[in-house]
Automatic annotation (TrEMBL):
Tree of life domain: Bacteria
Any Pfam family the entry gives: Macro
PROSITE patterns: MACRO
Species per Swiss-Prot/TrEMBL record: Tissierella pigra
Biological classification of the source: Bacteria, Bacillati, Bacillota, Tissierellia, Tissierellales
Domain Macro: 1-175
The protein's name: O-acetyl-ADP-ribose deacetylase
InterPro entries cross-referenced by the UniProt entry: Macro_dom, Macro_dom-like
Length: 178
């Protein structure tokens, strides 16, 4: 567990659909109609009420975020965001990935969400290199804590052990561990 200002930062290894927090974040696509990876898992476990709400929302531009309830999942809300597809690192990917994290946090704050869990957005099917993506993710949440700071717990849920180790090694350098 890490502490930055008044916010707790957790790094967890496992399946985000099993995490009990106020909101989990989904790495969705522009349609919001489901897909593979973490998106597939969330819709499969959460049930059809999530898809019904997503259909009404009608899609989400890359870098933005939308919210639904969480169906059968243990959390209360799902924040659906869309990360960029990684091309050459030179096509606004970094900005868009940063915005996906930051806008998810702003939306969470609007809904008075106090605990939120993120998967590693864009680093699966969208092929964003994990180490680069991690640095963007950590920068976005630290900037959010600096500017807003109203969410008390932010978790990164990593599905792969190598990603989990990478995050811990990086955060140990950057942030106070308790
Ligand atoms: N819990 C936590 N992390 C997971 C889980 C899970 N249950 N399942 C996979 N991951 P991806 P993207 C990790 O491909 O790159 C979908 O089809 C996975 O190991 O889910 O943003 C959407 O519909 C990886 O580290 O998302 C879009 O079309 C990370 O989640 C597209 O994929 C992200 O991998 C989005 O691609």
């Amino acid at each position: 567990m890490y502490i930055y200002k008044d916010t707790t930062i957790n790094v967890l290894l496992g399946d985000i659909t099993e995490v009990k927090v106020d909101a989990i974040v989904n790495a969705a696509n522009n349609t919001l109609l489901g897909g593979g990876g973490v998106d597939g898992a969330i819709h499969r476990v959460g049930g059809k009420t999530i898809l019904e709400q997503c259909k009404k929302i009608g899609g989400c531009p890359t870098g933005e975020a939308r919210i639904t309830t969480a169906g059968n999942l243990p959390s209360n809300y799902i924040i659906h965001t869309v990360g960029p597809i990684y091309k050459d690192g030179d096509s606004r990917e970094e900005r868009l990935l940063y915005e996906a994290y930051y806008n998810s946090l702003l939306l969470a704050e609007e809904y008075n969400i106090k605990s939120i869990a993120f998967p590693s957005i864009s680093t699966g099917a969208y092929e964003y290199p994990i180490e680069k993506a991690m640095k963007v993710a950590v920068r976005a949440i630290m900037d959010f804590i600096d500017k807003e700071g109203k969410i008390s717990s932010i978790s990164f849920v990593l599905f792969k052990e190598t990603d989990f180790i990478l995050y811990n090694d990086y955060l140990k350098e950057k942030i106070l561990q308790i």
